[in-house]
Amino acid sequence: MYMKWAIGAAAIAGVALADSSNNSTLTTATPSVGKSCSFKDFTATKSADVQSVAACATAVGDITIEGDSFGTIELTGLEQLYGSLQVNNATQATSLNAPTLQLVSGQLALSGNTILSTLNLAQLTTVGTLHFNALPALEKTGLSAGITSADEVIISDTGLTSLDGINVFKLQTFDVNNNKDIETIDSGLQSVTELLSIAYNSEKVDVALDELTSANTVSFQSINSLSVANLTKIGDSLSFDSNSLDKIEFKQLSSIGKSLTIQKNDNLEEIDFPKLKSIGGALVIQLNDELKSFDGLPKLETIGGSVNLKGKFDNGTFESLQRVAGGFNLDSTGDLTCLEFNKLNKDGDIKGDKFVCKAADESSSSSSSKKGNSNGTATSDDSSSETSSSGGSGSSSSSSKKSDANSAGLNLASILAGFVALGATLF
Q1: pTM attached to this predicted model
Q2: What fold does the segment set 32-168 form as a domain?
């Protein structure tokens, strides 16, 4: 893991370095320390307990600090901790002072410290997981040197006004949520391998992730603007839900592994994905009151799931679309027509078993069962279809009438044959 690379670079000599260019890992052995600096599930509830930890330049084990007996939590002297450090529900603590701490190999978690307002982590650069939660009085991170190596950063329910000091290039998880005073998130992140989520911070939070080139699951909620100038690939899903931004723009994005969801963004007027060619799962664009067009997907060729489009659309095309693996549902109250989408369905480009297109002047629908042919591709066997428009409607039942007539003719012939046979018997 990337985290292990960072620990090896910062820790004890004698460790062989692997080739970081291909994300190789290296194993860092836990250092040997004296008994007094080896902690196993150690819980400190008073200052004397904390001092036994601070007396160690290098400590090994998991340490928890909790309780209401602290005003200041003093960890000056501790430089490296091979384990986790958790400070939970220290409800009277106003400050945490760890100016010499450089490395925490596990989790550094501060949670439920309701009046903690000062944090000094001036030399901390390496941590497994950085987790700040329920710290309403904390306005500054205290990360003067800046964290450059971590696996996860999770910041939730704090009083932070910025994310200064978080300078990691590659993370597994970057989750920033419910921090009401954060108005700007400007990160040099280049890769997020599992989850990138920014949700419900300040109502006007502006997000800049212009160094980001790859991500996996990406979710944005309640953001004001977004800049992602270099993101080329999303391995899993991308979603925008209940944001105030007026434009969604991904100039370099070429593929999304699973779904793309854009919904309930009241101010959204434009989407722009000029290079997006494939969506591995569903495409959902719905309930965006000001979005009148979904023309911003000119290169989209394949959709691996269903399509669900609902809104007041005046324009919208998929000029490059060749295949929709699932069903198709378009419901527009604008001036958009169904002509193009009816053609996609007729040509067999929509492989799912349901097709519905409702526009201002027409409605089309069909239900089909898809069968595989000898080449392994899907074909459609329409079991029912219906099309109507303001110019009139029609229906056809000639095949069923012909079948009824043939059946009636056979029955009459059988009756006549019976009478003939009866006459021959009697006479």
Answers
A1: 0.81
A2: 24 nucleotide stem-loop, u2 snrnp hairpin iv. U2 a'; Chain A (3.80.20)
